[in-house]
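Researcher: I'd like a structural prediction for the single chain below. Treat it as a standalone chain; there are no partners to consider.
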Amino acid sequence: MTSTASRALRYSTIQGEHRHELEIRRSRFITVLRRAETEEEARSLVAELRREFHDARHHCSAFVLGPDRSTQRSNDDGEPSGTAGVPMLEALLKGSTVDGEADLSDTAAVVVRYFGGILLGAGGLVRAYSESVSRALASAPLVRRQRLRLLSVEAPHGAAGRLENDLRASGVAVLGTEYGPTAAILRLAIEDSDVAAAGFSERLATLTGGGSPAADLGTSWVDLG
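Model: Treating it as a single chain, here is the predicted structure.
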């Protein structure tokens, strides 16, 4: 299953790996969520869990990748078609919302099922796999990612500390400061938009008297915590 969306500026993802177990009518549903930025990483999680839980009957999976959530996949792994992977994927797509809009991505989910001897029926399976992922997400640590424009500014050693503090106070992310033999280099990040860039340039000119123009280092995705 694949969909495309507009070019994203920010989204949420899983922080590392998270596990949650649910028992429904004697069947164990062990959900493992892991941050994954490529299909290879997502499929690697499935392979790892097949080895770890080698005696389980099913290792169903779903993942959504990309800032615009353009890659979406699911697999029922032997459960009746449409009763496991798809409801897991739908739970992922609803998993995190900001301002009422779902934004979870770069996340892989695997639900390992140990059959308990009681048939759940198609409807019961859909609810079980959906609930397993939803409950895991409800307790999982998330991190916000944002595409930021990276910049560097050179400043005299004696002025670098004050400039760093003033930039932080104005909402600019200071990623680090390197002190060279003749000057300090501040590495900065701002929102990736022309409006933000223009506002930053004005602020920097005011703080430095127009003496320290910023060098554009391109853009990068940054974890905001």
